[in-house]
Amino acid sequence: MLIALMLFGLVQAQTFFSSTLPPAELQNKQAVLETSYGTIVLDLLADAAPTHVAHFITRVREGAYDGTTFHRAVAMGIVQGGDPISKDPAQRAKYGTGGLGVLQFEPNGETHTRGAVSAVLIPGRRDSAGSQFFICITDQPALDGQYTVFARVVEGITVAQKISLASAENGLLSERIEITRAIIRDRPAPEPEPFAETSVDELGRHRAVIETSMGHITVELFPDRAPTHVRAFLRMAASGVYDGTAIHRVARGFVIQGGFLGSRTSPLEPKQQAYVRPLPPEFNPTPHDRGILSMARGDDPASATSSFFIVLARSPALDNAYTVFGRVVDGLGVLETIEGVPVDGETPVARIDVPRVRVLTP
Questions:
Q1: Which CATH number is correct for 200-360, 2.40.100.10, 2.40.240.20, 3.40.50.150, 3.40.50.300?
Q2: What's the pTM?
Q3: Which CATH architecture has domain 23-186?
Q4: pLDDT for 215-229, tens place per residue?
């Protein structure tokens, strides 16, 4: 979907920015944007667009973005901000016209996928970028090669998405959504993945509580039988991957199923998405009895990712074909309640929310 980046007026001045920052000062930097809706963190892509990054860092350090607004949005498309004129609510009619015409186009191989941050241009003038930027909420391949991508959202894409859905009139946001403060910081060192180094004995002391709108289900875990699955489940639970999902399948006398990411009420953050990956099978002889927690998969035995099921009755056909990695220790009555809900086929008629899967540490 092509999204036209409209401007309300043109900027005539054309004095190109020249950076005084040494190249080393541009590397491994992040921008943190505190907004009225929450925090958005950007990785700055100095290798792809060094002049754009140098300009952005310089302007942030000057305080140029503090008090500006996200003034334009396309629902589930883009959000646009950074116009210095937007600091003044009385100049609303001119929002989108300021801070441009100082950067030359920097072609690079970065694409306009979800979370890409690009420089706004004056229509018809490729060398006209400046302070204004837009964030892609969804993939925008039609923009590739037309705008300079100079950053990517690493935290807070859901914040940007929420901004995109705010009330707007002719593309201009009705609500004043400010960047209250912007700072530049060094990119933090990569954090070790949760539970990556936890021993099997320690993993076995953890439990998880699957909180549903019909009650809570507590499970113990079997890392001695399926260590990779247990680590992955705990990692996804602790990082919030399961928050806002649903029990999307109720097959009476067989299983209930949850963890399907298509049932989430909001998309995953990039860090969360990185924790969702195919799991190699760890089939084990544990029988699929009532209360057993097992991982769903497709035809490929190595296609399990996040979706899990809890067995409602002895199901020998599942044995050694799906990976058992836990068992319900509290909440069997909740299973019974869920099993009894009205269904359309195997889909609950009313949504059964899973607001959170909580990890209990020993």
A1: 2.40.100.10
A2: 0.75
A3: Beta Barrel (2.40)
A4: 999 999 999 999 999
